[in-house]
What we know:
68% of the residues lie in helices and 0% in strands. It is built from 4 helices and no strands. The chain has helices at residues 12-23, 30-55, 59-67, 70-76. The chain is elongated and about 65 Å long.
Amino acid sequence: MPRAKVAVSLDESTVERLDRLVKKADFPSRSQAIQEAVEEKLSRLERSRLARECAKLDPEFEKAMAEEGLSEDVTEWPAY
Length: 80
């Protein structure tokens, strides 16, 4: 996947913690550590958004919508 360079400003303490992880060989570079951290955060945000949207659903309404028309469809299915 193509990469884009970006400039970010971080607190010095964050950079120090990041450098310790790189030095311990948890990550090959600062860039890789930041890449993984951003991807993880984005995934968490997307999952929490999905959970919020699902919480808005009315289970009874969704069930009724899913079952709507099923009784008619069953009579039209060929017998085995």
